[in-house]
Design brief:
The complex is a heterodimer. Among the domains of chain A are: about 5-215, Pyruvate-ferredoxin oxidoreductase, PFOR, domain III (Pyruvate-ferredoxin Oxidoreductase, domain 3); about 325-405, no CATH class. In chain A, about 55% of the residues lie in helices and about 10% in strands. Chain A contains 23 helices and 8 strands. Chain A has helices at about 20-30, 60-65, 90-100, 120-125, 130-140, 150-160, 160-175, 180-190, 195-215, 240-245, 255-265, 270-290, 295-310, 315-320, 325-335, 355-360, 360-370, 370-380, 395-405, 415-430, 435-445, 455-475, 480-495; strands at about 5-15, 35-40, 50-60, 85, 110, 145-150, 340-350, 385-390. In chain A, the strands form 2 sheets. Chain A has a 6-stranded mixed β-sheet, sandwiched between helices. In chain A, helix 3 (about 90-100) links the parallel strand 4 and strand 5. Residues about 220-225 and about 495-508 of chain A have low confidence and may be disordered. Chain B has 4 domains: about 5-250, Thiamin diphosphate (ThDP)-binding fold, Pyr/PP domains (Rossmann fold); about 255-385, Rossmann fold; about 430-595, Thiamin diphosphate (ThDP)-binding fold, Pyr/PP domains (Rossmann fold, 3-Layer(aba) Sandwich); about 615-695, Alpha-Beta Plaits (2-Layer Sandwich), CATH 3.30.70. In chain B, strands 3-2-4-5-7-6-12 form a 7-stranded mixed β-sheet, sandwiched between helices. Chain B has a 6-stranded parallel β-sheet with strand order 16-15-17-18-20-19, sandwiched between helices. The two termini of chain B are about 60 Å apart. The chains are: A alpha/beta, B alpha/beta. Chains A and B meet through strand 2, strand 3, helix 3, helix 4 and helix 5 of A and helix 10, helix 13, helix 16, helix 18 and helix 19 of B.
């Protein structure tokens, strides 16, 4: 029997990534290189953002001629029978591994290391992303050769799309006995966006070649907060920074600096002093509870969550952030505006009557919220969504002046409410940690529930409150920390089940 | 205009004798039709045969040259009824659709044409949407062939075999006066390959001749007494004629060795999969040469008793590779061997799975089990491929158990990717509004239809209780008429509406005075099947009559309550939907949510915009973004959207751990993010950027003035912050 065999190639992509284009190019390259090419796919509804697989088999034309008969080529990959897998995204590489398409005897796995998040990962209320590292590890273990590179970045740099990057990576991987020039000829023959495609092809070609020489490294996500630049500290803040050094354990310094930066940015120096006062008392609790053995997790996490809570997103804060010069530059670069290009941007704001009252001096705010008639009356003018064009003077001034509300913030209803809640929270931490360090830490982490705006924020606040009630009821119970953690996880997941914004009773 | 243009591919249809045709399977079928001298072609789009319809639509000039009439049929039933042209006249005709669903719809007309029989060759091309990638119920078209006695072809999945069988199919149809079905699996429809073309054939007897000389034969009409006659004809005359034809022209193939105690019977469409399995076991080579005797059923109905008896005689056991269930072929072969008193074991679903697609691995496993039991000597002879064995030494994989653990662990990491609405899809806001209405007034029953809108049942929307078939969304809600209860809401697309929903849903609701609420998606195309034009399409179509509004049709039927809303207007949709649900007015209430399918719109508009920018015209491009520093990472916006470009990224804030929302560069600025942020009172993080190309002098002046004053204030604020910077 004839020992000739086809070269089998599977391309895994997400609908819309151009896996079909890549497959068509590859057919043409193969035919020019003297192969009989067959390819097929099962796009169907998967064309609409689902996972798709394209499958090619290449068979030497001269063998066909010599044999005088046609090869029988398969229409779908069989585990153990695939020479090259090209995955246009990291989890699709994971899918290829799961499907058994990658085997150590034969398969070169060429994968993009970038992520296109699936709906389940995106819609999780917290961080629902799959662990990329495990996929890369499995790929290394399982593939005969693993070539990983960021094809999305290659496509961006080259000004083209991911299919061109896949094509370049395949050529650069040396997995096919076909010279580079043939690949490039096919791109040229395509006649569309030739320059950008060739550039992207070249970047990915080099990326794959480099990855062959040195295996890819997983980009590590930073755990410790990165200190922004090396700006010399302004004289006014130096005493506060010195307090961090002297009053807090070393493990918490980096986080406390970030927290301090945040709260001063939110309000003023005095607010920063308050932040450090609060941290100092938690540090004392931590010390008494032998926190050193726990690397001072209590202080570190309080430094994080206290800063987040103290810099709550009220109307003033949002207006302030939206009007900053640095934000204007960031938006321009995010939307890819050329230097000097005219760009306008519009904000979508919809403060409810509740938020409006929150921003008023506490007695007035309380009075309005306490009067159903007044509330109903004001709901009409304030209840509408507003589009504010910040890039034009009128819109800018509206938000800029609102941002100046910082000056009266301490008198507002919102500030008073948040401040009281923070004090209670800190008191609970102080109470719990000496008895059970973990329980103290869990209470700190419950702050995670407090985020978002309007009803999302209210719902989070209610969940937080019910957890705190649970703590009050059961704090003497041993091992309540574990229970509180699971309650918190359930509450976080409950946001998901509750959909976008359940319980809209509060607004119209 | 369809999603994909085949203007280039269409030229392949002009290839003549001896030229090599290279292309997709479904295009090869189109070419084969022209080579067979068809007079008319019809059909209804749907994966995996949409491309056939699109190619034909783009090939009207060629068809006109050959005198072929092509129709984009209103439904599969309409297409099947077209075959009536072949009843009295020697006219060849072909119709095509997605099966099994299309065959369901067509079955009334199919049964009629099969009963009376045909004079000219009548071919039904079905794209069998079964197995991976399928979006429909997993059933076999085989059952329809059997019940109506339509012959079923299942060619080996290479273009030469497929094209040959199309041509033979017409001959078989004429020889046996019976319509013939050609079944193509998804992968065969999309397979790229080659075959040697022949000249196209202009039909000797054209439609014009038939129309000039009408023929009437009451014996061909399904009405007593002819209907009783037909049944006898089928059994006594047409069936034997078909068997005779299949035998004479060897449509089924005896391949592989001619001796041995075991053999394999395989459906033609699974032949390549079987060969690869044999090859992997070292029992065949790349050309399909094997010592095992194979009997390949390119005709799966009717079975040719003599050939099966001959194949099985002298064998201890045969493996039958038959995909899908019930296992009609296995039952038939068992029964005929029993009648012929042959003791050969027929091994089928006892070593192969009873249900599900027969993948390469499945067939290989089944084959191994079969050989182990019935022909162990073959299995001993087989050796793993020498090449593989040699290569295995090159690379020393980690101990297999550890490696396997790492793979298994991926199950929890690799996310499912359910199909979803495209970037900027106008159907997304409809379901955002429906979700918000649910939050306003509580849950209500939702009856879904077929089309892109059915993705609503998947995350993130999770809306919808049932779907009963194309155009049947509203009919699916018709039982829910209890007085005093909140009415059910049904969803229907414009494709389903014109397919049958107008009568089965809207007409039905008017006639029965039903109180249901219908959300009708008007995006201008049959979008899910590839953006084909329909009656209500806004586009001008040189060959079809478009621009017939659905609202006009419904008013004609007597619908009183119709509201038309721009689909991106979430707030208005929400208001109208609430009104409709809570309305006391009797009778059906219809909300038309209209906006052009974004996939098609971009295809239409993007090149125009590029051109305008190039020509120096003022163009404003819009897109959305999220401010990372005000986004708190709760992702509620994503749970109301699911747009591919609304995603997440690492939080740039060192204090926060959860990823923030983020808009990718391919945002088309449809406006949904902003509308939803407002309607659902989400958060102030979204912004819309208006990027101006070729700005006017006024644009620049306004910009300069704003920038100067804004810049001044920003610098002042920066200076204040610098006093506390570190």
């Amino acid at each position: 029997m004839n020992p000739a065999r086809s070269i089998n190639i599977a391309i895994l992509a997400i609908g819309g990534q151009g896996g079909g284009v890549m497959a068509e190019w590859l057919v043409e390259v193969a035919e020019r290189a003297g192969y009989r090419a067959q390819y097929t796919s099962v796009p169907g509804v998967a064309q609409r953002t689902g996972a798709t697989i394209y499958y090619l088999e290449l068979f030497p034309e001269r063998t066909v001629l010599a044999a005088g008969k046609e090869p029988v080529l398969a229409l779908m990959p069989v585990p153990g029978d695939v020479d090259v897998v090209v995955a246009a995204e990291l989890m699709e590489a994971g899918r290829a591994l799961l499907r058994g398409l990658v085997t150590p005897e034969r398969t070169t796995l060429i994968a993009s290391t970038h992520r296109v998040y699936a709906i389940s990962e995106k819609s999780a209320p917290g961080d629902g992303r799959g662990n990329a590292f495990n996929v890369i590890e499995a790929a290394r273990t399982r593939a005969k050769r693993f070539i990983g590179l960021d094809m999305d970045q290659a496509a961006r740099r080259g000004g083209s799309v991911i299919s061109a990057a896949m094509f370049g990576a395949l050529a650069g991987s040396d997995a096919l006995p076909i010279p580079r020039a043939l690949f490039e000829d096919v791109i040229r023959a395509g006649g569309r966006a030739v320059e950008a495609n060739l550039k992207t092809f070249a970047i990915a070609f080099d990326g794959a070649a480099a990855s062959c020489a040195a295996p890819p490294v997983v980009p590590a996500t930073s755990v410790v907060p990165a200190t922004a630049g090396a700006i010399a500290a302004a004289p006014a803040v130096q005493p506060l920074l010195a307090r961090i050094e002297t009053e807090l354990p070393g493990a918490a310094h980096a986080m406390a600096r970030e927290g301090l930066r945040r709260v001063i940015d939110f309000q003023d120096l005095a607010y920063g002093e308050l932040y450090l006062d609060r941290l100092r008392s938690i540090a004392a609790v931590d010390r008494a509870a032998a926190g050193a053995q726990r690397r001072h997790a209590l202080v570190v996490e309080t430094a994080r969550h206290l800063a987040l809570w103290m810099s709550f997103e009220d109307t003033f804060r949002v207006a302030d952030l939206k009007t900053r010069g640095a934000r204007f530059e960031r938006v321009r670069s995010e939307v890819g505006a050329a230097p000097g290009q005219v760009v306008d941007f519009t904000e979508f704001m919809r403060p409810r009557i509740e938020e409006v009252c929150d921003s008023l001096p506490a007695p007035i705010g309380r009075f309005i919220l306490g009067s159903p008639a007044l509330k109903a009356l004001l709901r009409r003018p304030f209840g509408k969504g507003r589009q504010i064009r910040t890039s034009r003077l009128g819109g800018f001034l509206t938000l800029y002046l609102l941002g100046q509300g910082r000056r009266i913030r301490r008198s507002t209803l919102r500030f008073k409410r948040e401040n009281a809640a923070i004090e209670t929270w800190l008191a609970r931490i102080t109470e719990a940690a000496p008895i059970d360090y973990d329980l103290g830490l869990e209470i700190v982490l419950c702050q995670k529930l407090i985020k978002g705006y309007s009803e999302t924020r209210e719902r989070g606040g209610r969940s937080f409150e019910s957890l705190m009630q649970a703590y009050e009821a059961a704090k003497a119970t041993p091992a309540f920390a574990a229970q509180l953690r699971s309650l918190r996880d359930t509450a976080l997941a409950g946001v998901e089940a509750g959909g976008g914004s359940q319980g809209r009773a509060a607004s119209g | 205009m369809a999603e994909r243009s085949f203007a280039k591919e269409v030229e392949k249809l002009r290839l003549g004798n001896g030229q090599a045709f290279k292309g997709e399977g479904i295009l090869a079928v189109t070419k084969a039709l022209l080579q067979s001298g068809v007079s008319y072609v019809g059909g209804y789009q749907g994966a995996p045969i949409s491309h056939l319809m699109d190619v034909l639509a783009d090939a009207q000039d060629i068809m006109a040259e050959l005198g072929v009439h092509f129709e984009a049929s209103a439904s599969e039933a309409a297409a099947a009824a077209m075959l009536a042209a072949s009843v009295n006249y020697p006219l060849r005709g072909a119709v095509a659709w997605k099966s099994v669903v299309g065959t369901n719809v067509a079955s009334d007309a199919l049964a009629n044409v099969a009963s009376g029989g045909v004079t000219g060759g009548a071919l039904v091309i079905v794209g069998e949407d079964y197995g991976e990638g399928s979006s429909i119920m997993q059933e076999r078209t085989h059952a329809f062939a059997m019940k109506s006695q339509i012959w079923l072809l299942d060619p080996r999945p290479n273009l030469t075999s497929i094209v040959d069988l199309v041509e033979r199919g017409f001959e078989l149809s004429e020889a046996s006066n019976t319509p013939v079905m050609l079944e193509l699996r998804i992968r065969a429809c999309h397979v790229y390959g080659r075959f040697l073309a022949k000249n196209n054939l202009r039909p000797a007897f054209g439609l014009a001749e038939a129309m000039r000389h009408p023929v009437r034969d009451p014996d061909r009409i399904v009405l007593p007494p002819a209907n009783f006659l037909h049944e006898h004809e089928k059994i006594d005359r047409r069936w034997p004629a078909a068997v005779e034809f299949v035998k004479r022209y060897r449509l089924n193939e005896f391949l592989g060795g001619s001796h041995g105690e075991v053999g394999i019977i395989v459906q033609g469409g699974l032949y390549n999969t079987l060969i690869r399995a044999l090859e992997r076991l070292g029992l065949a080579d790349s050309f399909g040469e094997t010592e095992l005797p194979l009997y390949v059923l390119n005709v799966t109905y009717p079975l040719i008793d003599d050939e099966i008896v001959a194949f099985c005689t002298g064998k201890r056991a045969v493996l039958l590779v038959e995909e899908g269930q019930p296992e009609f072929i296995e039952q038939a072969i068992n029964s005929l061997l029993r009648r012929a008193d042959i003791a050969t074991r027929v091994v089928g679903k006892d070593v192969l799975p009873r249900a599900g697609e027969y993948t390469g691995q499945t067939v290989k496993d089944g084959l191994t089990r079969f050989l182990a039991t019935h022909a162990a000597s073959h299995l001993q002879q087989s050796r793993p491929r020498a090449v593989d064995a040699a290569q295995a030494n090159v690379h020393a994989p980690e101990s297999s158990a550890a490696a396997q653990d790492k793979i298994v662990a991926l199950k929890d990491i690799v996310p499912a990717r359910p199909a979803g609405f495209c970037t900027g899809c106008p159907e997304r806001p409809i379901f955002t509004a429906m979700k918000l209405v649910e939050q306003d007034i509580g849950p209500y029953h939702v009856s879904c239809d077929i089309g892109c809108h059915l993705f609503s049942i998947l995350p993130p929307f999770n809306i919808g209780n049932t779907t009963m078939g194309y155009g049947l969304g509203m009919a699916g809600a018709s039982a829910f008429q209890a007085a005093g209860a909140r009415p059910a809401v049904s969803v229907m697309g414009d494709g389903g509406f014109w397919h049958n929903g107008l009568t089965s849903g809207v007409g039905n609701a008017v006639f029965n005075n039903n109180n249901s609420v219908l959300v009708l998606v008007d995006n201008g195309y049959s979008a899910a099947t590839g953006g084909q034009d329909i009656l209500s399409s806004r586009a001008d179509n040189a060959r079809r009559s478009t621009r017939h509004p659905m609202a006009t049709a419904m008013r004609g039927l007597g619908v009183k309550w119709i509201r038309t809303v721009r689909s991106y207007d979430v707030a208005e949709l929400r208001r109208q939907l609430s009104t409709a649900i809570t309305s006391k007015t009797q009778g059906p209430k219809v909300i038309i949510a209209e906006s052009e399918c974004m996939l098609n719109k971009q295809r239409r508009v993007a090149p125009l915009l590029r051109k305008a920018i190039g020509a120096g015209e003022r163009v404003v491009k819009q897109r959305f973004g999220v401010d990372a520093d005000t986004c708190t990472g709760d992702h509620s916006c994503i749970r109301l959207s699911g747009c591919p470009t609304l995603t997440i990224k690492d939080n740039p804030d060192p204090l926060r751990e959860d990823p923030v929302a983020h808009v990718l560069d391919d945002c088309v600025g449809c406006g949904h993010c902003g509308e939803t942020a407002h309607a659902a009172v989400l958060c102030p993080s979204f912004y819309r950027a208006d990027i101006v190309f070729n700005p006017t002098r006024r644009d620049r002046l306004v910009r300069r003035i704003s920038d100067a004053m804004i810049g001044f204030l920003q610098r002042r604020a920066d200076a204040r912050r610098a006093r506390f910077a570190f």
